[in-house]
Design brief:
With about 750 residues, the protein is an alpha/beta fold. It contains 30 helices and 16 strands. The longest helix is centred in the N-terminal third of the chain and has 28 residues. The radius of gyration is 39 Å and the shape is elongated.
């Protein structure tokens, strides 16, 4: 609740700021919008107002028509109220300055079903007409407030970005379906009939006063951009011309206004009741059990309007090439609906059609929506009179142009821009929206898109890297002789590094590949999860199968970096060799392999290996001059940033190069065992130490200082030549192993 209050306060402050800017529009000092610019926005505002009022009339009839004339007369003013309040509130708080709000056809359909069901239930219970009117009006206001609270909460919790996970073809299908619904609305306005095969035949018999003005407006809307007609007055002039053709044609044909209304070319007048806010209703006549029985429809309406806001905002952003803050739009629509519902209004949201229509008229200002709302408010008082002079063919042309443009964009122009599967999905959503409904179309589109995504993702290999012990070794420095032995037996170790999100379909690739690898003699199999983002529960059977394959082949299975959320499931069928990282697993495998092989690790064996590079006398002279040091476990041999004034020969034990992290932990870079050298790089380059060197256990080393090195260059150059040759071979061997591992990672 505190978050909602905080969000409400921020939006109220934002509204105050916008109102101060709008009040400056007529100020001669520092005006943000001049009076001339306001007058230039009047054509767009007038058209938006006419569209909104016509929608209000049709939506009101759709919602309240099932309750008879009394409910219609009481409910229609509430729709007109929302037509005035929601555009202003959405406009002043939206992240886009040209965004326009209003009633929505999708939520209207849900409300119409809810009201129809409530009316039928109350008629069956024998409730009076007054009880029906009061209950329905209270239900409408309650649904609007609840929707506003939910939208504000979602926006405050920053859940609006969820729409970014809606697949692009679903958005395209939604826009194409919106275009189709706009065309059906245009057809209904022009003919007074719902779309159907029989009704479509009426198009062939339409009077020219119906189709000519409509085609004029639609043609200009769809072709203006292609023909380079970018002036803001193009659309107003087209509307005036279409209106002139309509009324001029009536005069030529000798058709009176009354005859035009009888033929459905002009709107009929309708007497309206007053506005009933929820607090002004006699709450004692509200049938609370009816509200409880239909609460699921409240929830359905909230889901539909929330999804519509996100999709409409996305559509506006795509069509106008502007970034949209979805959380901001949810909060904007939420506060607008809370305030509108408190006055008794119906639910509304950001309007795709009205926003794009205003945008095509050149509007880029919040003033357009405010002017349109004020015009709607002024017209609402005289709606029965003004509505009688609105040519339905002109409005039909507007809807035809906008709907046709959307259909053309998403069913024709995207043919070469999308894959065949994505394009067919757009068509599927369009067909479902046209035949069943908006919600079913979008829901089916999301389901199909998810299935296609799973299929496509299953084709992406879950195997990041495949390696053997010949090319990828642990970060443990061993003698060149031991490295040669490990490389000789390296093919007996095989490993696979997994990646991405693992599920049953993707792991089938691992099982198939492992089946091929186990056809050759192996001792160890390594599975690394370091690059895995998640593991689905459906993969457990695949891991059981992998374990069984390794047991049948007599191979030790080693797993490294297992995700914590999947560890228990993977290990539930028995323990395996598990390590925190791949390097630790490889070190364990190499140590286990060396224990099986006839490899000596004592000091005598190490000095015998050095005999390949030094003569006995030279080796004796070298060690006679070096300083022998015994290090206890945990003793620091070198510290980071110390001068690199010596290198050491490790006779026995093990030391590790490590870095201290900010959290106090240490990360091992590399370990060095008996028979290896460390510190030679800093000794030769003269740089400072780049990491700490610490003894892992009791270790004996021989130090060769820079002073001794220089002295040997003078006193015993023969030993120095062989020492330099030995160091070069060691460094070259390290570089070779590093290059092989690096090349494998790509």
């Amino acid at each position: 609740m505190a978050c909602l209050v905080s969000s409400f306060r921020r939006l109220v402050k934002n509204i105050k700021n916008k109102l101060s800017q709008l009040s400056a529009a007529t100020s001669p000092h520092g005006a943000t919008i001049s009076l001339q610019e306001c007058l230039g926005l009047l054509p767009a505002a007038f058209i938006v107002a006419l569209i909104s009022l016509s929608y209000a009339l049709s939506y009101g009839a759709m919602i309240f028509g099932s309750g008879g004339s009394e409910l219609l007369a009481a409910g229609l003013p509430l729709v007109l109220l929302s037509t005035c309040t929601i555009p202003i509130l959405v406009s002043l708080t939206s992240s886009l300055p040209f965004m326009i709000g209003g009633s929505d056809s999708n939520s209207t359909g849900v409300l119409a079903l809810m009201v129809s069901g409530m009316v039928a239930s109350m008629h069956a219970a024998g409730d009076s007409a007054q009880q029906i009117v009061v209950t329905i009006l209270f239900a409408i206001a309650l649904s609007t407030v609840l929707a506003g609270i939910c939208m504000t909460a979602l926006g405050t919790m920053r859940r609006g970005s969820l729409v970014q996970f809606v697949p692009f073809p679903v958005i395209g299908g939604f826009l194409a379906g919106s275009g189709y619904l706009l065309l059906t609305g245009a057809f209904h306005i022009a003919t007074g009939l719902p779309v159907g095969f029989t009704a479509l035949q009426q198009l062939l018999h339409l009077h020219w006063l119906v189709w000519a003005p409509a085609l004029m407006v639609a043609g200009v809307m769809m072709g203006a951009g292609k023909w380079g007609w970018t002036h803001p007055l193009v659309f107003p002039l087209a509307l005036l011309a279409a209106g002139g053709v309509f009324f001029g044609g009536m005069r030529i044909e000798g058709i009176s206004l009354q005859q035009a209304r009888q033929m459905g070319w002009l709107f009929e007048t309708l007497p309206l009741d007053g506005i009933h806010s929820p607090l002004s209703l006699p709450l004692g006549q509200v049938q609370w059990h009816i509200l409880a029985d239909h609460f699921s429809e409240f929830f359905a309406m909230i889901v539909v309007i929330t999804l519509t806001i996100l999709l409409n905002a996305t559509g506006v952003g795509l069509a106008t090439r502007h970034d949209v803050d979805f959380n901001h739009e949810l909060r904007s629509a939420g506060i607008a609906n809370i305030l509108s519902g408190a006055l008794g209004g119906v639910v509304g949201c950001q309007s795709l059609s009205r926003t794009l229509l205003s945008y095509q008229f050149g509007s880029r200002s919040r003033v357009t929506a405010v002017l349109a709302a004020l015009l709607s408010l002024a017209c609402a008082a005289y709606f029965s009179t003004i509505a009688g002079y609105i040519p339905k063919p002109v409005l039909a042309g507007l809807l035809t142009g906008l709907g046709g443009a959307l259909l053309l964009q998403w069913t024709v122009k995207t043919w070469r821009q999308l894959s065949l599967g994505d394009y067919l999905l757009i068509l599927l959503i369009l067909v479902v929206i046209a035949s069943i409904g908006f919600v079913s179309g979008v829901a089916l589109g999301i389901v199909v898109a998810c299935v296609l995504f799973v299929v496509d993702y299953g084709r992406v290999s879950c195997i990041k890297m495949e390696f053997s012990g010949r090319v990828l070794t642990a970060r443990v420095e061993r003698t060149m002789e031991v490295n040669a032995i490990l490389k000789q037996h390296g093919e007996r170790t095989v490993g696979i590094c997994l990646q991405g999100y693992l599920f049953f379909g993707s792991l089938s690739q691992l099982i198939d590949r492992m089946r091929e690898l186990l056809k050759s003699p192996r001792d160890f199999v390594v599975i690394d999860f370091q690059r895995v983002q998640g593991v689905d529960a459906s993969t457990m059977q695949s891991f059981v199968k992998l374990r069984q394959m390794c047991e049948q082949a007599g191979v030790a299975l080693v797993m490294t970096a297992i995700p914590p959320n999947a560890r228990l499931s993977i290990l539930q069928n028995g323990p395996i060799q598990e390590f925190a990282n791949l390097d630790s697993g490889l070190e364990w495998i190499e140590n286990a392999l060396l224990q099986k092989l006839p490899v000596r690790h004592d000091a005598a064996d190490w000095r015998a290996n050095l005999g390949e590079y030094f003569g006995p006398a030279e080796l004796q002279r070298l060690f006679a001059r070096m300083e022998m040091c015994d290090l206890a476990t945990g003793a620091v041999l070198f510290r980071k940033d110390e001068p690199g004034d010596c290198m050491v020969f490790i006779e026995s034990g093990q030391i590790s190069i490590s870095l201290a992290l900010e959290n106090g932990e240490r990360i091992r870079l590399r370990s060095f065992g008996s028979g290896t050298i460390v510190g030679e790089m800093s000794l030769y380059t003269g740089d400072r130490r780049t990491a700490d060197v610490i003894a892992d256990d009791h270790t004996r080393v021989y130090k060769l200082s820079i002073a001794l090195l220089r002295q040997l260059e003078l006193d015993d150059p023969a030993v120095m030549v062989k020492l330099h040759s030995y160091v070069v071979k060691v460094v070259a061997n390290r570089l070779k192993l590093t290059n092989e591992a690096y090349r494998l990672s790509f």
